Amino acid sequence: MKLKIRALLASALLGLFASSPMLAQAEPARQFVLGNGMKVIVKEDRRAPTAVQMVWYKVGGIDEVNGLTGVSHALEHMMFKGTRNHKVGEFSRLVAELGGQENAFTANDFTAYFQQIEKSHLEKVMALEADRMANLQFDAAEFAKEIRVIMEERRWRTDDQPMGLLNEALNAAAWTAHPYHHPVVGWMDDLQHMSVQDIAAWYRQWYAPNNATLVVAGDVDAQRVLALARKYFGKIPARRLPAGKPQNEPQQLGMRRVTVKAPAENPYVVMAWKTPALRQVEQDQDVYALDVLSAVLDGYDNARLSASLVRTGGKATAVGASYSGVARGPVLFTLEGSPAEGVTTAQLEGLLRGEVERIAREGVSEQELQRVKTQLIASQVYKRDSVFGQAMEIGMMETAGLGQQNIDRIIERLKSVTAAQVQAVAQQYFQDDTLTVATLVPLPLAGKKPAPPPAGLLH
């Protein structure tokens, strides 16, 4: 689950739309650090009597090693299996009785847990979340049941889905040394050999207050939230965290190709180039230009890829461009699509690359650049209305090491991107030596339809 930089626009609309009464009421987030090292960030938004609590742990697929892939996701599942104070399933039952919603998600860079509740119930869910940070229990029988659920989840989301298989193969080919090589859900063989002891050890290694960020957004008072955080999380002792190693990806020395044959209706191709990630908000200008380039290609309904290859040219039935600079590890810029009848994936590759090459040769006009920037902002207006969305932005920025206080500054940097900078990154980063191509070759479906998700795949 990586975040495009332009998704952060939701948090900067105050500066861009100051005339809006709704946005003019926005206040900056308040940030604190507890004595045990846990970061607490509070975003007050009093438009509705609700609150969102999120706890973000800085651990995910990027921290895993061979033989233990998928352990972060498996631990996420076990976090709902009881503590010394609450029985299996009681966490979800109690949140539901409060009229709230809760869930969790694991990605390459983090694992996060959330509850959406009426504001008066914040203290109750904070107590529940702190309890499982400190007191999780690991029952072998519960693990045996849950690991079967996780393996079925892998089958449903990846093994039985041609696009899931294609994306997994793309990442495995693009990254040879970096942990992004591995799927977040884990390789099936690792899941089959995972033990409850592996999960317990991972919990003890990483689930510490000094490796977590508490984000609370909604109709709350920052000082009250801080007092509650001290009461429930502040008494949990800090732990010594594992010393991480960079696991830098070696230089790619030529184009890589991978083919996936799977039952599917249509062929598909994804091209992925290694590009810079955002590390220094003030210095990394190419990151912002790449994000604008992605928007020029695929940032609105009539963007270049769709207009040229689907609507006018009829060469593809679906196209897309994607770039995310916000990540703990390295990142890719992707072009992808499904060819129309009579067009091969090889031909579509050339057509997709041709759109970038056209920008490299001719650039973009000031009019198009301004239209794209307007679209980037307008597409995020309603996200500003979501308390959950604000909490997500804060958590992702903090986990990526960029700091939530830089959200507004990133918007300013995006606004400053010039047409010349967009043309320059189109010229610089789309070479064969940094390219990985994944192609889906469809096999007959044999009358099969995708199965519905199995019962129990809540998380």
Automatic annotation (TrEMBL):
The keyword Methyltransferase does not apply. It comes from the Bacteria. Transmembrane segments: none annotated. It is an enzyme of class 3 (hydrolase). InterPro entries: Metalloenz_LuxS/M16 (IPR011249), MPP/UQCRC_Complex (IPR050361), Pept_M16_N (IPR011765), Peptidase_M16_C (IPR007863). One of its GO terms (biological process) is proteolysis. Residues 40-184 form the Peptidase M16 N-terminal domain. Residues 1-24 form the signal peptide. Keywords: Hydrolase, Protease, Signal. Gene3D superfamilies: Metalloenzyme, LuxS/M16 peptidase-like. Pfam families: Peptidase_M16 (PF00675), Peptidase_M16_C (PF05193). The keyword Signal applies. Residues 194-376 form the Peptidase M16 C-terminal domain. Belongs to the peptidase M16 family. This is Zinc protease protein. It comes from Herbaspirillum seropedicae (strain SmR1).
